[in-house]
Description:
- This protein is mostly helical.
- It is elongated and about 80 Å long.
- The protein folds into two domains: 2-58, no CATH class; 62-107.
- The protein has helices at residues 2-13, 19-38, 41-58, 65-101.
- The chain has four helices and no strands.
- It is 81% helix and 0% strand.
- The mean pLDDT is 90.
- Helix 1 (2-13) runs antiparallel to helix 2 (19-38).
- The longest helix is centred in the last third of the chain and has 37 residues, at 65-101.
Amino acid sequence: MLIIASAVVIYYQFSDFIQLGRIGIIIVSVALAIGLILTTETGQSAWSFIKGANVERQKVVWPSRQEAMQVTLFVIILVIIIGLVMWAFDALSFYTIYDVILRVRGT
């Protein structure tokens, strides 16, 4: 963290220096910080986790275009049906409360 913070300070302190050189300082500092992190036990543990996650990502079987379209259509239809059921329940409860129980709207 200190390496990257120092690089940012250097980046702004040498504003008269060419832009490419300042960006190079940032890139080298980030690479150095990553290298130092990977030498620690926590860094090595994180790296092995990343490698394991990549192996698991490669095992994923993605659906075909037709399967994705069918599932999307099914979800859209299901959302419409559930919306209509909720609307009907709302209308029925509104009618029950105001017209039957309170007798407000009917008079």
